[in-house]
């Protein structure tokens, strides 16, 4: 009998990372949040790297009814829709979301 494993060898192309362009946002008292959006080439994972007050955070894309939601469950939640976003600090119990607007040409 031939080996089943040998018959099922799929030559899937290696995954690559797409995206990474810088998007700057004006976010209330934080002044500026820098975002870089990434996706795996097979579409299985999306994430954003945010720079907030000089610190970098990586948030995975999660479920959202409208727009795109990124969260890491311990620090921040980041929602985007068109050229707007909202940022919530999950470390503070009653933290309100901060409205952000994309800074065009900056």
What does this structure look like?
An eight-stranded antiparallel barrel has the order 1-2-3-4-5-6-7-8. Strand 1 (17-26) and strand 2 (32-40) form a beta hairpin. It has one helix at 4-7, and strands at 17-26, 32-40, 46-52, 55-62, 68-71, 76-81, 84-89, 98-102. The chain has one helix and eight strands. The mean pLDDT is 88. The chain is mainly β and 106 residues long.
Distance between the termini: 64 Å
Strand order of the largest sheet: 1-2-3-4-5-6-7-8
* Residues in β-strands, percent: over 45%
Q: Which H/E pattern describes the elements?
A: HEEEEEEEE
- Gross morphology is globular
Model regions low in confidence, pLDDT < 50 over at least 5 residues: none
Give the secondary structure arrangement, pairings included:
Blueprint: H1 4-7, E1 17-26, E2 32-40, E3 46-52, E4 55-62, E5 68-71, E6 76-81, E7 84-89, E8 98-102
Antiparallel strand pairs: 1-2, 1-8, 2-3, 3-4, 4-5, 5-6, 6-7, 7-8
Keywords, please?
mainly beta; eight-stranded antiparallel barrel; globular; 52% strand; 106 residues; 8 strands; single chain
């Amino acid at each position: 009998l031939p080996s089943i494993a040998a018959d099922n060898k799929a030559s899937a192309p290696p995954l690559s990372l797409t995206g990474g362009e810088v998007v700057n946002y004006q976010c209330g008292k934080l002044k500026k949040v820098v975002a870089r959006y990434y996706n795996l080439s097979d579409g299985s994972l999306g994430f954003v790297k945010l720079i907030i007050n000089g610190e970098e955070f990586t948030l995975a894309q999660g479920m959202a009814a409208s727009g795109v939601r990124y969260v890491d469950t311990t620090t921040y939640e980041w929602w985007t829709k068109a050229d707007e976003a909202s940022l919530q600090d999950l470390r503070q119990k009653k933290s309100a979301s901060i409205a952000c607007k994309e800074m065009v040409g900056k």
